[in-house]
Design a protein that fits this description.
With 346 residues, the chain is of the alpha/beta class. It contains nine helices and 14 strands. The structure holds S-adenosyl-L-homocysteine and N,N-dimethyl-L-histidine.
């Protein structure tokens, strides 16, 4: 499908939207697929309508949710070094959200005098538009080329690089992919890089399960509301009749897989109708719907995933409490082909 270019009076902003109808289709497919399985599941990208994005912002401010603060601390401590190491003219950010922490990086690249363009990629349209507006005002001379789309489908729509490229994938969002898709996705990201380009990725680290579970089950109930928000999205987009109050929020650390699972547990036996799909969905009392996994990393897990995707670690940066890691990587050096010096031909 042809992107809808946004005619804007501001020549420093270009926004392409690739979601026209695609989001609704993918939601319908995910519901048909995920809610008819014996173990019900939905992918986490459907949390993020405007309300979900706002709830996520509130999560980032919660005392229990340490990843945002830890990642910001690492960025603040290392932004100048990262700007020097990458010499980036372009920052492409996947799942950019409000780009709150990104400003630390943009400041350093702007200060270094290399930054020309910022390319935010996010499924939430309002975020990409607002962020483009704000950043072009905050950074004179910066070009913003926003891509509204699903990063699992639309990475081929990221425009050609204008110079040394830094791809940022912050917040630990890579942990929301199950292991196989995670490696596949990293390989797709590697496809955005050329020699001399870098990937900067945030990953949450394995730690005390109590700390992890509190981060996903906060005392103010904001994460519970974020979790239930997916039901409101289904009600609005697919004319379903979920009552969010019929479900309890569950957040558990799975110590075998070393990931947090968020689920919604039905408080009573009931049947919901997803009217747009003519789909009745029965829940037994206590039945759980998995809405997110959030994998936690060790250096070995991360190195393995990067290497499987054709990437090699350049720097491993962490906060003083080693809660979170930010890693810089680049394409793996491929050994030069062996030259045949024997003079024999085959
Ligand atoms: N990078 C920010 C936001 C992380 S929240 C931070 O570090 O705080 C995850 C972000 O990814 C949200 O903005 C959400 O809208 C976006 N997102 C989730 N799934 C996506 C997908 N499949 N394609 C594009 N964006 C996605
Ligand atoms: C976006 N992502 C990395 C968050 C996480 O921690 O997995 C989403 C989130 N879910 C619950 N709280 C925050």
């Amino acid at each position: 499908m042809e992107p809808i270019a946004d005619p804007t009076a501001d020549p420093s902003i270009r926004i392409d939207s690739h979601l026209d109808g695609v989001r609704e289709r993918s939601l319908a497919d995910d519901v048909l697929d995920g809610l008819t399985r014996p173990f019900k599941e939905l992918p986490p990208k459907h949390f993020y309508d405007a309300r979900g994005a706002e709830l996520f912002d509130r999560i980032c401010e919660l005392p229990e949710y340490y990843p945002t603060r830890a990642e910001r601390a690492i960025l603040t401590a290392s932004a100048v070094e990262l700007a020097e190491l990458t010499g980036a003219a372009e920052l492409v950010e996947l799942g950019s959200g409000t780009a709150a922490k990104t400003r630390v990086l943009l400041d350093a690249l702007h200060e270094a005098g290399t930054l020309r363009r910022y390319v935010p990629v996010d499924v939430t349209e309002s975020m990409v538009r607002e962020c483009a507006q704000m950043l072009t005002e905050e950074y004179p001379g910066l070009q913003v080329h926003g891509v509204i789309g699903d990063f699992e489908r639309h990475l081929d729509q990221v425009p050609a690089a204008v110079g040394p490229r830094l791809v940022a994938f912050l917040g630990g969002t890579i942990g929301n992919f199950p292991p196989g898709s995670r490696r596949r996705f990293l390989r797709t990201i590697a496809g955005l890089l050329g020699p001399g380009d870098h990937l900067l990725m945030g990953t949450d680290l394995v730690k005390d399960p109590d700390v992890l579970e509190a981060a996903y089950d906060d005392s103010q109930g904001v994460t519970a509301e974020f979790n239930r928000n997916v039901l409101r999205v289904l009600n609005r987009e697919l004319d379903a009749n979920f009552d969010p109050d019929d479900f309890d929020h569950v957040a558990r650390f799975d110590s075998e897989h070393e990931w947090i699972e968020m689920r919604l547990r039905a408080r009573r036996e009931h049947t919901t109708h997803v009217r747009a799909l003519d789909l009745p969905v029965r829940f037994a009392a206590g039945e759980e719907l998995r809405t997110e996994i959030s994998a936690k990393f060790t250096p070995e897990r991360l190195r393995g995933d990067l290497s499987a995707a054709g990437l090699q670690l350049v720097s491993w940066l962490t906060d003083p409490d080693e809660l979170f890691a930010l890693t810089l990587s680049r394409l793996t050096d491929t050994p030069a082909p062996a030259t045949d010096t024997s003079g024999a031909s085959s």
